[in-house]
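Dear colleagues,

As part of the handover before I leave the project, I'm documenting each prediction I ran so the next person doesn't have to rerun anything. This entry is a single chain, and its sequence is reproduced below.
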Amino acid sequence: MPSTQVQSSSRGGVKLPSRIAAWTFAVGVFILGANGAFAQDKYPSKLIRIVTATPGSNHDWGARLTAQELAPRIGQRVIVENRGTIAIEYVAKEAQPDGYTLLFYGATVWLQPYLTKTGWDPVADFAPVTLAMSSPNVLVVHPSLPVRTVKELIALARARPGELNYSAGGGGSTPHIAAELFNYLSKVQIVRVHYKGSGPAMIGLLVGEVQLMFGALGPISPHVKQGKVKALAVSTPKRTPLMPELPAIAETLPGYTAEATIGFFLPRKTPPGIVAVLNREIVQSLRSADPKVLFNAGIEIVGGTPEEFAGFIKAEMDRMGKVIRSASFNN
């Protein structure tokens, strides 16, 4: 990755459903009214920042991949800033709506407000740009845990209620939601141990502080291959070609699906022409990435329009909101 293009600096009760449909419609009108030519003439004229989660996560990896591909396309430097969960509130409340600060984040943006009071509103504070990429989660356990299948894990958890622990980062993160959905559907009580990000959560599993994790495929795969953790199943509805040897959790728990999805956002009042330019350039950047690099990282590129991303968020808020309200989630 050329150092001239990508840099890094590490820093370490909302009313939702009633406004989602209006928000999705507004996103469509917002983009359709964009004057692309005007925006392209004026933008961009300086460095662009992609603000994301902690190092060692798919967020960090995906942000750097995008920055590397995007910089030469727009003729400006693109840097990555790792701010952890505070990245979300920072972009929502402090970043200028001028197209020079992007948020690259996943389900925490739209699901954490169901779990706890947040400093942002996923509908009112953000302009969706594009759903960028998805990745299966892998249910992995520490080698000391005497299970080889999802069925055996469920049986052990039922025999030892509240004794098994899983690691996850911020509330509403995909590993958190994936684990609690597993608890809900299998009627077990595996307790969350909260870490400050996906990287620290993975380390917690590797050193044996916890027994299991629903980890992103890319970061966890090397540890599976080295025998440091045991992989039981993937979180996709069916088996995935990214890890074809593993069954899907849904083969044991019908209806289970919890893929890690990450997208780009801008502050809500960003001019529509700038949203349109960034959507076009980011999607093209992602699609020009080396397929072998993506496959090895366990990533699938999605791309799409701002309207499609808004629709996806609405559907996920509807689906998981019901589960979260019905389940006893560990915050």
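Residues 1-15, 31-40 have pLDDT under 50 and may be disordered. The chain has twelve helices and twelve strands.

All the best with the project,
I.
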